[in-house]
Design a protein that fits this description.
elongated, 7-stranded mixed beta sheet, Poly(a)-polymerase, middle domain, 5 domains, Cyclic Phosphodiesterase, Chain: A
């Protein structure tokens, strides 16, 4: 009751000021979920607290003291001391304002008798005004626009808020204040409070204006985002500490059947040896009403074996989807911990954004939200305290950051992404400097060079933005982060991509967003130009605690009744990592790739950095085949395939009359061929080599009318080879008998090296090796397009410099392939994506300073340990391939040849570092030299820079041009031995052979006659000045002896030299005597070989293969285990295992010592001789090579008694190595081989 002496009506005060407000402020503890939404959607966030306005506008600021007094007194009279005002806001609503909707929480029932309405009426009356009905509410935010989707989306968020219930004990009076400075802002400050009833134990706001702190951070943050200038980052601890918000981790409580907040006791010690991380963008629905038809498919994808992980990072998660996901029983069992509980649970609030990041895990964790100073964007940084903890390194546990960067390929979007990466790395460096990191999610960084180049050409992005894309990759690498896909891809540990790699541009390998093969991606793409992009990544900073293992994609589209079924527009990615307790546990592979064989990353200077300039220069030099040349080779290969296999479908051996497969290998298969390249073909079948070549000859002869001709039969180191001409295209054909390989051809690319199908004879493995190596190279190269471009660049350089010819001891295609692939893979492992120009620059720098004398070139990702290769004194350069048998592809290299290569590598490295250098200048002119000779610049320089020349003249006047071609090839193969002899006899000379023939006759006349004259030139230059004439005379005498011995060897070779049809001479020539020469471009034509017999004369070939009575009587070839183990019983009661098998067994079996064995062989002049097994030469180009059919026996050196024991002998058919022939047992225990 009011006292009798008080006036009956309060003094009227006008309420027209928008600078003041009378409101109710809910307790802070009740507003966590509300403020999460307000921060993103309410324009008043940071200026107003969450509040319910009772009177707004309110009184003028100068009237506040009187208004406060009147309301306090009036409420004291009309609200009893025990009367309570309880607020219950459980109804979400909205009203339209201009072009947007305001979404709020209000009372479920609006009536004049509600506590809130009653309190407002009394407050209005206290100011001398009449009460009017009002919709009292707490604002959640404003919709983005006035569309139905925008309104309903925010309303749905508000409906997911837990019911707001609290008791009012205090009314708050707010007064508007304004900041000063260049960009002034206003905010509402707490002016005073008015207590209501029994408010002693009820929360009331203080004068701290706690809601204003966000305003300052947001303002500075927005300025940083909008400027996006690459200034030096200052310490941002204060900013991070203000903005980073800790989150609550939930676990599924089976007893209460609900998701509950973790209190710390739910975790347990983790003793895992490996951990698996998955990332998946589930594609949020942006239509209204949202459809949920993909939800079951998404859940089944997440639960698939290919996606199963210990930690799963999800992007674009909506409230409805996470509720659906976490209601699944199997999901709850596999992932009992989550960063966000389902909003469908009454006590859980909604997710903050439309597209949210969620981490679910089988291990407990704690997490924080790290903002990127842009609405709806940030990182979820989780720490797993029970994983990767280490007292020695002070690591407090594995850190996993989930990200979803800004989408788009525009200047602004790329700048924003760059800022976001910079912010996240800065935060991790500041707060988790010792811990291993994993950053997983949708990076939205365009990777396709086609997309980026097109955007630059269309001017949709600036050149600065193009550079920013590269700088982001550099920033990732500089932070010590490894791309899990790249690392696994380099090691061949990634599963096959969903994208066909046949027509991919650089940066499209391993794509996770593929509009060409994913219908959902095709419907959502806006900036990818319909090209595949590798948006989704898993980045790892190992810190000696993690070792990246396997990697795979999941969520790949499937066809069901002709309809593509796919859950998302993105494919998921997953990687498995080994947990290393300490550095000593690192595997051999990890040690190799991390500590051995380093490659320095050398970036191209500005004038060389554009790959398109390199490509243009290569095009000018005809290094790219045109469409006509491409079609011509495709037709030639198809024709040869049809002729040999007797079928049109070369990929299906079942369609051939004899099960066989024909595949290209070499440069053609790798896609680096040029117009002058031939096609290397490998046929794999179920019949013997002898039978195959008989069959092939018959079929090739019959196909002569179709343009197929046999040019020559060659006995190569890998066996018989046919040189062919098919429709004018040069082709080499080899055969490998491997029945089990043919049977499992459809899966050959996925068969591991240890599979029993590769238990083949060594010769078969050697023939199959190029194709197996090719598969591995294509599978593991980080970027095949960049590799191809860099390859062509290096090949053109080698051609120009006279260094492209493996038979002369220089570089060949396989050399460049293996040397460049290691550079590409190593740089990708250490520095991420690398373009072709940087590959070339790094290639020349690395090999210019390579220690060839003590090191070998090999792939440390394939060879987990340093390969066991015993290099001989005649192997100055060792370049190893991949699969067994291990062999040096640079076995023809010579010391003078390597010296010249190193010299040229260094010159190229220096030239590419010169300021202003261009690719056009580097490659030189396209036309011939300006002199009267028809010489290209490189050959002209060769003739000008040497003081004298050794001239090897070849004259031929025979009737058969095929023999003329054979003569030239034979002399050519012997020239390298002359180079070696000169170097050894005269080490003071620089010796260099030009890898092409010279001639002094016109090509037009020469092509029309059987007479031929040409020569090879070996340039000689002094390394040091010769002081006396006596030294010169002695050197001249030594040189003459070398030349005389060489020409004598040639002329006494009855097999290749016929004095009736040819003449060979070697002489010393002065520079003036060679100035009139030109390069021999004579077209030898398709001269067919003499087809009297194509049977295999090589005894080794016959012994390795089984003779078949008919082609349909197929019998698999005998198998030698990959890690040889002797058999307990003879393989045959009569047939003796060939000497080659015994030789390889004794040489490569790790349990045997080759130095303990002796080989007895038949010398053509001296009879039976003996030599150590380690000294035996198997390469036909080696001067000491002896055919293996001359091997008589193998002996094992004796012990103390000195007696040697025969372990294999051809004459007596004894075989104590394998037990074949008449030798029914193995070598006795203790004598070398196990029984």
């Amino acid at each position: 009751m009011a006292s009798a002496d008080q006036p009956s009506h309060p003094v009227r005060i006008s309420t027209t000021s928008y600078d003041t407000a009378l409101c109710i402020i809910p307790p802070i503890s009740h507003c966590t979920h509300i403020d999460q939404l307000r921060e993103l959607y309410d324009k008043a966030y940071g200026r107003w607290p969450p509040h319910i306005n009772l009177i707004y506008p309110f009184v003028a600021p100068e009237s506040l003291p009187q208004a406060q007094h009147q309301i306090r007194e009036y409420l004291a009279q009309h609200v009893g001391p025990t009367e309570t005002v309880d607020v219950d806001l459980s109804q979400a609503g909205c009203f339209k304002q201009k072009s947007k909707y305001t979404v709020f929480l209000g009372e479920s029932r609006i009536s004049s008798t509600s506590p809130l309405q009653s309190l407002r009426t009394k407050s209005v009356e206290a100011l001398g005004q009449g009460g009017a009905p009002s919709t009292l509410h707490l604002t959640i935010g404003q919709s983005q626009d006035n569309t139905v989707f925008s309104r309903e989306f925010l309303l749905a968020k508000a409906r997911h808020l837990p019911v707001l219930q609290f008791r009012v004990g205090t009314l708050a009076i707010l007064l508007r204040k304004r900041t000063t400075g260049a960009d002034p802002k206003d905010y509402m400050s707490l002016y005073g409070t008015i207590d209501i009833g029994a408010s002693q134990d009820i929360w009331s706001p203080d004068a701290s204006d706690y809601w204003v702190g966000s305003l300052v951070s947001n303002v500075s943050g927005l300025q940083l985002e909008e400027g996006d200038e690459d200034h030096t980052v200052k310490p941002e601890a204060s900013v991070y500490d203000q903005e980073v918000q800790p989150g609550s981790t939930f676990y599924f409580d089976e007893e209460q059947d609900k998701w509950s907040i973790c209190r710390g006791e739910e975790g347990s010690d983790i003793d895992a040896k490996a951990i698996t991380i998955s990332s998946y963008n589930v594609l949020v629905d942006t239509e209204y009403p949202p459809t949920h038809d993909r939800d079951p498919l998404l859940v089944s994808t997440i639960l698939a074996d290919s996606a199963m992980a210990d930690i799963l990072v999800l992007q674009e998660v909506s409230d409805d989807f996470i509720s659906y996901l976490l209601e699944d029983v199997e999901v709850r069992r596999r992932y009992p911990f989550t960063s966000h509980a389902p909003p469908s649970q009454p006590d859980v609030g909604p997710l903050p954004s439309l597209r949210n990041i969620v981490i679910i895990s089988s291990y407990p964790f704690n997490w924080k939200s790290v903002p990127f100073y842009r609405k709806h964007k940030g990182a979820l940084v989780a720490q797993f305290g029970d994983i990767c903890t280490s007292s020695s390194s002070s690591s407090t546990g594995l850190v996993v950051a989930g990200v979803h960067l800004t989408a788009g390929l525009t200047d602004g979007a790329v700048a924003t992404k760059k800022s976001q990466i910079k912010s996240l790395i800065g935060y991790l460096r500041q707060h988790h400097v010792k811990e291993p990191w994993i950053i997983a999610g949708d990076f939205n960084i365009a990777t396709s060079t086609y997309t980026i180049t097109t955007a630059l050409k269309n001017k949709s992005i600036s050149s600065e933005t193009g550079a920013a894309l590269s700088s982001m990759e550099a920033a990732i690498s500089d932070a010590g982060l490894l791309d899990a896909w790249s690392v696994a891809h380099l090691e061949g540990a990634d599963e096959t991509d969903a994208t066909d790699s046949a027509e991919l541009f650089e940066g499209e390998e391993g794509a996770t967003f593929d509009p060409q093969n994913n219908r959902l991606a095709a419907g959502t793409t806006t900036t990818s130009h319909d090209r595949p992009q590798r948006y989704d990544r898993i980045l790892v900073r190992p810190q000696d605690a993690l070792c990246i293992g396997r990697f795979n994609h999941f969520g790949i589209p499937e066809l069901l009744d002709g309809l593509q079924i796919v859950g998302s527009d993105h494919y998921g990615v997953r990687t498995t990592m080994q947990l290393l307790k300490n550095v000593a546990e690192k595997t051999g592979a990890d040690i190799n790739t991390s500590e051995q064989l380093p490659v320095e990353y050398r970036r191209a200077i500005t004038t060389l950095a554009d790959s398109s300039d390199m490509s243009s220069s290569l095009t000018a030099h005809d290094m790219f085949p045109d469409e006509e040349q491409t079609e011509r080779r495709q037709n030639a290969f198809a024709l040869l395939n049809q002729v040999i296999l007797g079928a049109s479908n070369f990929m299906d051996p079942g369609l051939s009359d004899i099960p066989m497969i024909m595949v290209p290998v070499g440069s053609y298969a790798l896609g680096v061929w040029t117009a002058e390249s031939d096609i290397d073909c490998l046929c794999i079948g179920t019949i013997s080599s002898k039978t195959f070549f008989k069959l092939a000859r018959q079929r090739l002869v019959k196909a002569e009318s179709q343009g197929v001709r046999i040019l020559r039969k060659v006995q190569a180191s890998t066996g018989t080879m046919l040189e062919l001409s098919v429709k004018g295209v040069a082709m080499d054909l080899q055969y490998c008998p491997a029945a089990r390989v043919v049977e499992r051809w459809s899966e050959i690319s996925h068969v591991p090296a240890s599979d029993p199908i590769f238990n083949l004879p060594v010769l078969s493995l050697r023939k199959l090796k190029p194709y197996r190596d090719l598969l591995y190279i294509r599978r593991t190269l980080p970027s095949l397009p960049a590799f191809r471009l860099a390859y062509r660049c290096i090949k053109l350089w080698a051609l120009k410099r006279g260094l492209y010819s493996s038979k002369f001891g220089y570089l060949g295609g396989v050399h460049i392939t293996l040397m460049l692939s290691w550079i590409a893979k190593r740089l990708a492992h250490d520095h991420g994506s690398t373009n072709a120009t940087d590959l070339v620059i790094s290639f020349f720098h690395h090999y210019a300073h390579f220690d060839w004398a003590n090191e070998m070139v090999y792939d440390a990702f394939f060879h987990k340990k340093k390969p066991r290769y015993h290099r001989s004194a005649r192997e100055p350069m060792v370049v190893l391939g991949f699969h067994a048998p291990n062999s040096n592809v640079a076995h023809t290299a010579t010391v003078p040849g390597l010296q010249m290569l190193t010299k040229e590598f260094k010159a190229a490295d220096e030239q590419l570092s010169e300021p202003g250098m261009s690719w056009k200048t580097f490659f030189g002119t396209i036309s011939a030299s300006s002199s009267d000779t028809k010489l290209p610049p490189g050959a002209a320089v060769f003739l000008d820079t040497h003081s004298s020349f050794v001239k090897v003249d070849i004259n031929f006047w025979g009737r058969t041009l095929a023999k003329g071609k054979g003569l030239v090839g034979w002399v050519e193969s012997r020239c390298i031995s002359l180079v070696v002899d000169i170097h050894q006899g005269l080490p003071g000379l620089e010796v260099r052979i030009w890898p092409a023939r010279f001639t002094d006759s016109g090509t037009s006349d020469a092509d029309n006659t059987n007479d031929y004259h040409g020569c090879y030139l070996i340039g000689l230059s002094r390394r040091a000045k010769v002081d006396t004439s006596d030294n010169k005379v002695l050197a001249k005498q030594d040189l003459d002896k070398i030349l005389e011995r060489f020409v004598t060897q040639l002329r006494t070779d009855e097999k290749n030299y016929d004095a009736n049809t040819c003449w060979i001479d070697v002489s010393l020539a002065k520079p003036v005597e060679v100035q009139g020469l030109s390069l021999d471009d004579r077209e030898w034509g398709d001269y067919a070989m003499d087809l009297d017999s194509v049977s295999d004369s090589d005894e080794e070939e016959e012994e390795l293969d089984s003779d078949l009575e008919a082609t349909d009587a197929v019998k698999p070839p005998r198998a030698i285990p990959q890690r040889p183990k002797p058999t307990s019983t003879p393989l045959s009661a009569t047939k003796l295992r060939p000497a080659s098998d015994v030789l390889n067994r004794l040489r490569w079996d790790p349990s045997l010592d080759p130095s303990e064995y002796i080989i007895g062989y038949e010398d053509r002049f001296l009879g039976a001789r003996e030599t150590g097994l380690e000294k035996w030469k198997t390469e036909q180009t080696d001067e000491e090579f002896i055919p293996q059919h001359r091997i008589l026996y193998f002996k094992k050196k004796g012990g103390n008694d000195g007696d040697a024991e025969i372990v294999w002998e051809r004459a007596t058919r004894i075989d104590r190595v394998f037990g074949s022939g008449l030798g029914a047992g193995g070598v006795r225990a203790g004598k070398g081989l196990r029984c």
